[in-house]
Amino acid sequence: MTWRAVPWSVCVAGCLIGGSVCAQTRVLDDFRSAASWRVVSSDQVKASMRRDAGGALCLRYDFGSVSGHALLRRELPLELPAHYLLRLRLHGSGPPNALQLKLVDASGDNVWWMNRPDYRPPRTSAEMTIRQRQIEFAWGPTTDRVLRRAAAIELVVASGAGGRGQLCFEQLTLTALPPPGPRPAPVIDTSARHWQADLGAPREVSGLLVRWPPGQRTRDFDVQLSDDAHRWRTVRRVRGSGRDVQLLWLPPELEARHVRLAFARPADAPSDVQVMGPEQWPSLNRALASLARLLPRGRMPRGFVDEQSYWTLVGVDGGGAQSAVMSEDGAIEPRKRGPSLEPFIVDESGGVTSWADVQIEHALRDGYLPLPRVRWSAPGLDLAIEAGADGTRERSQLIARYTLTNTGDTPRRLTLALALRPWQVNPPAQFLNTPGGASPVRRLAWQAGTLRVDGQPWLHAVTPPASVVAGTFDQGDVLVDGAAQRPLRSLVDEQELAGAALRWKFELAPGTSRSVAVVLPLSGTEAAPPARADDGWARARLEAIAQRWRERLNRVTLRLPADAQATVDTLRSSLAHMLMSRDGPALQPGTRSYARVWVRDGAMMVAGLLRLGELQAAREFVQWYAGFLFASGKVPCCVDARGADPVPENDSHGQFIFAVAELWRHTGDRALARRLWPQVDAAARYMEQLRQSERSALNREPGREAFFGLMPASISHEGYSAKPVHSYWDDFWALAGYRDAADLASVLGERERAAELARQRDEFAADLGRSLRTAMAQHRIDHLPGAAELGDFDPSSSTLIFSPAGAEALVAHSTLEATWERYWRESLQRIEGRRVWDDYTPYEWRSVSSFVRLGQPQRAQALADFFMRDRRPAAWNQWAEVVGREPRKVRFVGDMPHAWISSDFIRATLDRLAYERDADHALVLAAGVPREWLAHGVGVRGLRTRHGPLSYRMQRDGSTVHLTVDVGLRMPQGGLWLAWPGDDPLPQASIGDQPAGWDGRALRIPSLPAQVRLALP
């Protein structure tokens, strides 16, 4: 039967929600007929539909070695009542994957969903209740996010653990609920044995926030729920509580009319109890935030008290999956999703000093090495915290060192407490891939100098602490509550929020310091410090880590004026960020929110790595990613532990080909190019299929002409995730892919294929140029459009026309000037505070390169100065993916650092000193160097280019500018050029002893080594 054949039932037994109006239920599908359902699956995911012995309709799936999804879809016109819930009865088998129920509107563009990640299907029939609040808008262009009607339903399994299995569906019902009435005030009843509340009607209960009269002894009680005040079920047991403010988080999906605290022994009633539902506490993080607001500021991290927090990465090259993060306040999260180690200082009277009570300064060792430091300063005391990661990807550890100093005039007795806390450094506002905030801690143990968390070694004390105490979360805060300060041997917290504190007690004379060190294992087998390790050992290990990074990060050296030293330091730090973020060969933009591998990020990071001499890291990535192409030649947009992602993003194919070609151009490794040629060829053939699909008669019709010959619409550009569009971002990458595939074919002697690819390249370039001009005319704009449908302004995307596409000639030069003139006007308003803005993404670094190529170094410098001010913290030389105007306004910021943005900064900075002109394979020097830099001198040594290493020096001496270019560079096909930007009179030039003429505002250097003399007018 179907829902159309079944009327609303007269009444659900007893009425689901209290009130005089009964809830009504409709069967949407009993799955007895498979005719109305069809199976859909993504690339290389096997899926089929069958009926099991019990009559359920089963979706069988096998993810194999790829990521993706399988689903059952049915057209199902449906009007949703104002208040409702769904019930899905099902069973199945298989590893944990995401279960999704999607409701799609008539346009097919707007989707609402219930998404349960890591869902393990029950072996026997079970009913899942899906409440209205659990169905959220997923994506689509609509601005009306309220679900009122649907046209289709999808039952989806999306890869989590992957593998194979089946989901068997038995019944799907929709229950219309009466509108919620006003909630009556709870009726409270108290006695020496209980506190009890009648809520007036059944309600979902997420937890309770309880305040007790101060100074009471510890308490033992149970949290109980009831529907009738007679039959009670215990949902939480609390033993030994010493908190004045108690957070009682309950298991999910509980509903009751009556709530009771049942005391194990007679006790005074609490002074206040708030019963929280999912509206107030939709998550444990929200519950913890409620608690944090009632505690002294600093007792919990900034993220729980409505303050944006920042952090940085501590790891080893290639160890992104096992890296640590350190907060701006000195807390350390050694393992992703794991608890953190927070410092506190306890004085003689028991007063606690936290991050909220001190001035905080930040630094990196030597100004750029990835060994972060945090310094606390308060009257009479100073605490320095430094950390570094030691070892290899396979076996690594973090060494943290804490130095407490008495800066006052009198002796002090101080305690340094390092507290294990059941929350991450990654704050609660971070929701993507690795949700931040709370982290479960169930079991703690202390033995022989090692703190174990849930059975695993978590901390080794190099300096033995005076004591180690611990308690359950219910018992209290290990910093201030005596009930939670019991000597630790072993502890189990059923609520999985245990805490511990290692305490070192010092007597410090004025001006003296004491240091302690701990080791936090990151990866591999247990890496405890040597038996005789001490603070001297820790200092030596940190210096050894620093020396290895010095050698790694200084293969290329820049000479810039002293006031630009931060740029030099940030460039070296950015290289370290890319190396630490990668997981083995896999280049990742981050280690928490973006712990996946996108080919677009990887291709652009490859370009930056190669220019700084990291050939091996680039080679490893390209070879690794080549193994994930689909059988069709489709290049996956991204790859993670689940395998290749099938989402069509039509920039991917050109990016992969570009990365292979860029590796060839920098290494000359013909054998590697030959090994990768089959994947390059397959990707180019797949790209050609896509291109030809848009060279259709449909795209000759009025209004669609701009789509003709482009890559098909996709969501590769983040701004177009609501609905696929024809993004020129895709097309510029595709053009680079055609060009590079043709070049590789020629290099490898594939003459016929090279000719075919060259023809396709030229035809595509012609179609792309025509499309750009058509879209500009249709939208009546004078700037480059971001997408053909929209005619939008997106200069960060349009930068690709310069590099890697080298396609400036496809449009008039006035179009390029108009595009970046508008961007400059808007940027200047933002820089000068004349334009209201909330946030931006530092991908805008790419526009610095555009101004360099347009011969506008002063604008490039002004933009760079603006972006450099938004490093957070500035001394840590990094950007988040999202930068807010108000530093403490809470928002999702992505990873810190964000390695793709690090690569954008690297390429923009190096472009200012030397850039490859993709249009004619020329190398252009000093186009982004401001004139004022020349008085102090600029230069590079060992900068990698497609033509070998580049070294040059340029300096002004009075009225003469001297340029020296060293040997080691092969003369580029398009020539070696010195740019003289701006529009002032050109200097008189000579190369060696011979006069030299200018070609426009560029001077060609015919041979190396070269001595160029520029006499200023």
Overall 3D geometry? globular
Task: Compute the number of helices.
Answer: 14
Provide the gyration radius in Å.
32 Å
Q: Tell me the strand order in the biggest sheet.
A: 26-27-28-29-38-33-32-31-36
pLDDT < 50 runs, ≥5 residues: 1-21
Termini separation (Å)?
91 Å
* Helix/strand class: alpha+beta
The proportion of residues in beta strands is: 25-35%
The biggest beta sheet, please? 9 strands, antiparallel
Mean pLDDT: 95
Description of the molecule:
With 1017 residues, this protein is an alpha+beta fold. The chain is built from 14 helices and 54 strands. The strands form eleven sheets. Strands 26-27-28-29-38-33-32-31-36 form a nine-stranded antiparallel beta sheet, covered by helices on one side. It is globular, with a radius of gyration of 32 Å. It starts with 23 loop residues before the first strand and ends with a strand. Residues 1-21 have low confidence and may be disordered.
How does the SSE layout of this entry go?
Elements: E1 24-29, E2 38-41, E3 46-51, E4 57-62, E5 69-79, E6 84-93, E7 97-104, E8 111-119, E9 126-131, E10 136-139, E11 149-158, E12 164-176, E13 187-190, E14 194-204, E15 207-211, E16 219-226, E17 232-241, E18 245-249, E19 255-263, E20 272-276, H1 284-292, E21 311-314, E22 324-327, E23 332-333, E24 340-346, E25 352-353, E26 359-364, E27 372-378, E28 381-391, E29 396-406, E30 412-421, E31 443-447, E32 450-453, E33 456-461, E34 467-471, E35 486-487, E36 490-492, E37 499-508, E38 513-523, H2 535-553, E39 557-559, H3 565-581, E40 597-598, H4 599-611, H5 615-626, E41 638-640, E42 643-644, H6 652-667, H7 670-693, H8 728-747, H9 751-779, H10 795-798, H11 813-831, E43 839-840, H12 845-853, H13 857-869, E44 883-884, H14 899-913, E45 914-917, E46 922-925, E47 938-945, E48 948-957, E49 960-965, E50 976-979, E51 988-991, E52 994-996, E53 1002-1005, E54 1010-1015
Parallel strand pairs: 46-50
Antiparallel strand pairs: 1-12, 2-5, 3-4, 4-12, 5-11, 6-9, 6-12, 7-8, 7-11, 8-10, 13-14, 14-19, 15-18, 15-20, 16-17, 16-19, 21-22, 22-23, 24-25, 24-30, 26-27, 27-28, 28-29, 29-38, 30-37, 31-32, 31-36, 32-33, 33-38, 34-35, 34-37, 39-47, 40-41, 41-42, 43-44, 45-46, 47-48, 48-49, 49-54, 50-53, ...
Helix pairs in contact: 3-14, 4-5, 4-6, 4-14, 5-6, 6-7, 6-8, 7-8, 8-9, 12-13, 12-14
